[in-house]
Specification:
mainly alpha, two-stranded antiparallel ribbon, about 5% strand
Length: about 100
């Protein structure tokens, strides 16, 4: 597996299992906002967070679509890698 795909897969799985959080902060109203490095073009398509739905962007930043853009890899290749049996072993290897 290519290193860039493996890095993206690690990020996706770590966020999926809540081992790693996207880079961002919460404002004084409790709304989570991504850092400039975390924010991608796909984030602009979403409704801005509100006081009643403060984590809309945070949830989105954990999706495979967002992670593919964040790592600048092909979504299809990342999705295929995520579906491969044993893909979650990457989490264990990286955490050791």
């Amino acid at each position: 597996m290519r290193k860039d795909i493996e890095d993206a897969l690690y990020t996706y799985l770590a966020r999926k299992w809540r081992i790693q959080e996207p880079s961002g902060k919460t404002d004084k109203y409790g709304r989570w906002l991504p850092t400039w490095k975390e924010k991608q073009r796909c984030c602009r398509m979403l409704k801005a967070p509100t006081r009643t739905e403060p984590d809309t962007l945070k949830k989105h930043c954990c999706t495979i679509e967002h992670v593919a853009k964040l790592h600048n890899v092909d979504l299809g290749q990342l999705s295929s890698a995520a579906l491969q049996e044993g893909s979650e072993q990457i989490l264990q290897r990286r955490r050791e």
